[in-house]
Amino acid sequence: xxxxxxxxxxxxxxxxxxxxxxxxxxxxxxxxxxxxxxxxxxxxxxxxxxxxxxxxxxxxxxxxxxxxxxxxxxxxxxxxxxxxxxxxxxxxxxxxxxxxxxxxxxxxxxxxxxxxxxxxxxxxxxxxxxxxxxxxxxxxxxxxxxxxxxxxxxxxxxxxxxxxxxxxxxxxxxxxxxxxxxxxxxxxxxxxxxxxxxxxxxxxxxxxxxxxxxxxxxxxxxxxxxxxxxxxxxxxxxxxxxxxxxxxxxxxxxxxxxxxx
Length: 261
Description:
Layout lengths: L1 H5 L5 E6 L2 E6 H4 L6 H5 L16 E3 L6 H10 L11 H10 L3 H19 L28 E12 L8 E2 L5 E6 H8 L3 E2 L11 E7 L4 H10 L3 E13 L8 E12 L1
Parallel strand pairs: 1-3
Antiparallel strand pairs: 1-2, 4-5, 4-6, 4-10, 6-8, 7-8, 9-10
């Protein structure tokens, strides 16, 4: 009876994993027999599974890390970004979804990396696709290529005496423009998605911004993820505080930095 009910699933399935929306094929979710997803979408009917307000099947798990679970189900292989720091958390997710082969792969890689760090040697593993490189000038096979543009709007005042110190104002907001999956990989939970929620990972956005106002903090995260600045530009306008040309000049600027990996 359960098998008959399982056939009522659509060939294309929408999932809500921890607030992140994924769209995939039913056969992908059934790719690994006896896994949790195989059981849910083979031994159950659609009415048995919890859904969100839009009818998508809901799983209360890490929505960002689920992309790697889905990649593994599609290709039976594990490819992680360079400088990936969530391997232990991903191992926990693999255990939850009952993917023993993936769990063993992650567990072996984690032990190899720990041994390399203890001996003072560079990370080196037989599983080269999931190994991080210490050379930031190159991109590992597991790193997803792309561009991220970071922008900010700032203002400052220069007095009539140009030798006087300029009065800088705090950066109001740092915006992020990129592919959804890249932005979440780099900035994680420091990313504010309130202006563009529920976007699929393979789409693009120009409406995300960061929860902090320090450009250097954003640059550090981008560098750790293997990104390098390739271009920048800035525009500015000048206005006077009043009609009196002797008043302080107020400059407003918008600056963008383009990073590539």
